[in-house]
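Revision sheet: structure tokens.
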Amino acid sequence: MYWDEGIETLSREKLERTQETLLAEHIALAYDKSDYYREAFDKAGVKPSDFKQLSDISKFPFTNKYIERERQLKKPLLGDMIAVSEEEVVFVSASSGSTGVPTLSPFTKKDFEEFQDVQSRLFWAAGMRPTDRYVHALNFTLFVGGPDVIGAQNLGALCIWAGAIPSDRLLFILKEFQPNVIWTTPSYASYLGETAKKQGIDPAHELAINKIIVAGEPGGSIPATRKAIEELWDAKVYDFYGISDIFGACAGMCSERNGLHLAEDHILVEVINPDTLQPVAEGERGEIVLTTLRKTARPMIRFRTGDIGTVNKDKCACGRTHARINIMGRLDDMLIVSGVNIFPSDIEFVIRNMEELSGEYRIIAFTENFTTKFRVEVERALDNNEDKETIAEKVSANIKMRLGVKPKEVVVLENGELPRATHKAKRLIDERK
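Predicted:
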């Protein structure tokens, strides 16, 4: 049932003691070997000796993407956050650079091997076994999720390194090789299934896929979105979470599919109020902050991910004790409308639960009288003959019921009019000045 039972089912008390030991050593390494961390800790007036228990992590300064990028530019190629020489680095991934200069994530040989062992653990928890055929449909070009296929190979599965290829080619692979497990984004899983149907292929009966691993968007943890993908493919969907600044997938769903187990022997998680920077109560929504415990190439101490989510540290019904996270969306994508925080995933929850709609949607944020407003574009389901005005009223009322605020306008389009994503879907269009 477990890839590493001793680690995955460690009691909460022993797990936290293990984290304390690892983190004490990790903070000392960061201070001794990294120019950035020595400077940052000295500026904050803290020393490695100030860390004695997990709660002491709050004494140490945060890092974020902007600091990471700044320090990389200050000392190219890898920056001065690293704690090893470049000669010890064997692999680098890179962020997309969509918000600035791409940031590199370095790994030593040991870092990389441990990274892939975690991937094997997550694949195993999702039900992958050596008898499976797995197609890896993620981008290999500098993307941190590219090498995750090695974790599936280490597990013993037959692996097909497809990468980000045209949909026609991927469907050919699915039809010819009949793999039963695939990893992609929620949007692309929907798009690929729809494309298969247009080509006369029934993904639920003519293809062998019975497990779909998704990541990169919150959809995999939204029940209605997951259900729609599952019905399209007749397969179970498992959500994974990763972050380029640390490593590939570091959390994933188990057989219970009730949250994503974080590899807590590698990463410490905090959830903070992004305005006050203070911790929120367990189970409350806040910004996810991650601290590496073992990655030596570049330690990440209190890295503000910009992801909004919750943490549950109760023991899972599967027997695993590692905390489960749920990601709602990006802080960058959050809208504040009439004092209410709104994420695209909140809108998606409503849209995907309405049989009158196709499930596709787009949010447009704009400014009116110096305040933020938003409109929602949706598609009428193929078999729905209701007039568009009635559908729009239903959508608006359901959003108001769910969120407490309603959109300025709901635009109902015909099925297929909204663009389909072949990677990550762009759900929010921000037209505010």
